[in-house]
Fold this sequence. Notes:
Distance between the termini: 22 Å
Oligomer: single chain
Low-confidence stretches: none
Radius of gyration: 19 Å
CATH architecture of the largest domain: 2-Layer Sandwich
Number of helices: 10
Order of helices and strands: EEEHEHHHEEEHHHEHHEEHE
Number of strands: 11
CATH topology of the largest domain: Ribosomal Protein S5, domain 2
CATH class of the largest domain: Alpha Beta
Amino acid sequence: MQMLxxxxxxxxxxxxxxxxKREDGYHEVEMVMQTLSLHDELHAxxxxxxxxxxxxxxxxxxxxxxxLIVRAARLLQERxxxxxxxxxxxxxxxxxxxxxxxxxxxxxxxxxxxxxxWEISVSREELLEMAALLGADVPFLLAGGTAWASQxxxxxxxxxxxPTMEVLLIKPPFGVPxxxxxxxxxxxxxxxRYASRALKQRLEMKxxxxxxxxxxxxxxxxxxxxxxxxxxxxxxxxxxxxxKRGGAGMMSGSGPTLWAVFPTRDVLxxxxxxxxxxxxxxxxxxxxxxxxx
Length: 293
């Protein structure tokens, strides 16, 4: 059989409000999420021995069985009992521990890819339920586009697609473990700003109208950013430099990657070069609103 491939699209959080800690230990959140054109690429070849294997062009885990791609494949295999196995290979472009959902995007791509490869008949709703077993971001990244996420982040409601815009991603030369950010956040006394609700309302009321740079400043809010900036003060320096250059920026997820919009493509490219010259990874990408599944 011919090798199949699937793109695993990165995400940014356009706004995040943390509403408190739940009894199950997770956090109650409200977020507006957005997929980007930046992506990993997953290739799959059907094999007859029933085995699941994964190779990558980047070191992704000590134990392959811990990888979300392999866990996604095992989940489908256990649920639907296909007669085949799979050889998977991953081309990694999304940086890890970056707040861009790379691992979750890879798991979502694996679900979409293996449904085709193994000729599985499954409803959208059932696949979304399975995605939620792999992580809070996986259901959103299974479908893609622009969405409202609530509860643990796994309850997804599609929003009108954000008009395409160019975005600069700035990834400092370190990763941030999500649990440590939330642990520090839990020591804070923070009242939610409900910026996510305001952005959701704006997208629903004016779905075809692009959001201008000055207007973005009203909505760009991440409750985890204050904590992460305190852990890594360089993030504040980067945010201030974005502002100096006429842009608007905020942190995605639990960090450390910042995403920013600028008034023109030329200014965006100059900013990308500036931040790259100072040791950061930079990606010029754009919002991606196709429905992936």
